[in-house]
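Listing S7. Sequence submitted for prediction.
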Amino acid sequence: MLRLRSDLETLDALDDHRGGHAALERTALARAEQVLAVQRGGSATERVRRRLFGVAADYTAVAAWSCIDARELDRAQRHLDTCMRLAGLAQDATAQFRAWNSIAILAHQQNRHAEAVTAANAAQATGITRCDPMFASLAHARTAIGHSNLNDRQAALRSLGLAEDALARARGEARPSWVAFYGPAELFALTAIVRDRIGDPEQAEGASHRALAMLPSQFRRNRALATGRLAIAQLHQGEIELATATAATVFDLMVGAPIPGRMRTLLGDFHRDLLTLSANAPAAREWADRFRTEWSRP
């Protein structure tokens, strides 16, 4: 079983550094099929069979997340359907949580914000949240994102408060490698999104700075995303030159690697808002030149 799970941490680390891409998806799906072949071909006990389904669910979740990050949304949906089925066969609450967490993110990308809230609530209802408050915190943070997209300020702030309270109760337990991204830094990054969307760009900027100060160095993709959100918060305060300078550092952070689709969308949002606010400012023109150059690279 350890041998079958051995590549999961490697794939999770590759995602943290580079982001979602086709090779990661293919590798994860191939590993899932290898695990399922073992499950089909052996005479294992029911307990071992469930564990094999759980490992296959984890690999399929990697493939799904890679598609979400690359914004290959139809493929992500198919992988998540498979992942949820495998997690159910495994009776694995952690795998079910992971699937619901990704479903909430996918629904957000598809602008189905009420569905995103429902998926985040389903993640909260899984058994792992009762055992480990860190998972409960992540589920509440996802719920806050959904409420902010629905312009429900009170519900969004209430969910953020629940996320903060739960994270304060979390302890340094052994957890799957995929959830290593979540902690105080990521909660600040998610808080920045919520605050900006409910019209608090100053608080969003502060939360982004705190996220960047705390993010471990190996999370290059997440650092670039948090930097892009910092730029948006600065832009929404009218700080054109500062915002464009901040946004440009996203390209520097991702040098040597393709820019994942989710990050391209974030930068596209920044570009659109910048043109709306101040298309003729010198800083805006300089940014537009850099944006066009970087957008065309693989």
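Caption to Listing S7: primary sequence and predicted structure tokens for the chain studied. The two ends are 37 Å apart (CA to CA). The chain is about 80% helix and 0% strand.
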